Amino acid sequence: MIHFLPSALPMSPFDRAVEGIESVFDPNLPIFGGISVDNMKGINTYAFFNDQVIEKGWLAIGFADPTLAIITRVNHGFNVLKGMQLEVTRSELNIIYEFNGQPAWTYLTNMLGVPETTDRMEVLTLSIVAEEIPAEFEEDYGSRFVLRSLLGNTKDNSFSCPASCKIGTILLLAKRDEKGMFDGVDRITRQIQELLKGKKPLAVFHADCLLRGRFSINRILKDEFINRMQYPICQGDPIPWLGLYSGGEIAMIGGKNWVHTFTSSVSVIYR
Question: N or C end of the chain, less CB within 10 A?
């Protein structure tokens, strides 16, 4: 298994990075982690490797002990608005230039009912979009849709996406659901407890999207999510719990590695 921690700067097609790792090792290799971000300032990110501090760096940490196993669960709990569709009509890798044949920034801000001069970070919190995934992943994930964040660039009317977005991709707007987010956290916690079958975790790796909490809506304290998961999984034992508030999450669903945004992603290592 590989713990993967890339920087959000610049916004790259992280699904291609995951594919690169899989091409060296194995498509079935569990890859888990989060995309580092600087509280949405967009200036710099930092990673630590031995005694070095790396700026805008990417880290990959490999686990080779064959006695170790991993359980990863991830969920967003958002509501998808199926009547509001955006078709990508011009794109390059993860950069979207046109929705429905019109400049992407202009089209989406008009659709959201906000001025084109709106700050791009504010548009980011409003323009949560969802992409449909195959039906066989729904039971594991709790949704037929993965969420995507869109970071706008007013200079060329484009949006950057954390994953590749091909021409013809249909995106739907999604809306935060406070109850759905808590229900989703409870769901993945129960799943982890069931899969552990009484075994004790050795460590827990956690990536929780920055935009799920008070940064965007000022309602949910992230501690509420963490506390809701830690005791049921760790049962009060001093299990190492390591993670970050992320700009995207990397986690398996249905045995396939995916890039997510707006999720809580928890990976439990046990023997």
Answer: C
How many domains does the chain divide into?
Answer: 2
Peptide bond into 10 cis (omega under 30): yes
The per-residue pLDDT for range 219-262, each reduced to its tens digit, is: 556 677 778 899 999 988 999 999 898 999 999 999 999 999 99
Mean pLDDT score, 66-81: 95
CA distance 85 to 91: 16
Q: Which candidate, 150, 118, 123, 145, places its Cα nearest to that of 216?
A: 123
In degrees rounded to 5, what are phi and psi of residue 90?
-155, 125
3-class state of residue 58 by DSSP: coil
Same-domain check for residues 33 and 159: no
* 20 and 146 belong to one structural domain: no
| Residue 241: domain span | 2-74+178-270
- Name 114's Cβ contacts closer than 8 Å, sequence gap at least 6: 122, 123, 126
Per-residue model confidence as pLDDT tens digits over 5-56:
999 998 899 999 999 999 999 999 999 999 999 887 889 999 999 999 999 9
Q: Could you give the CA distance from residue 13 to residue 212 in angstroms, rounded to a whole number?
A: 21
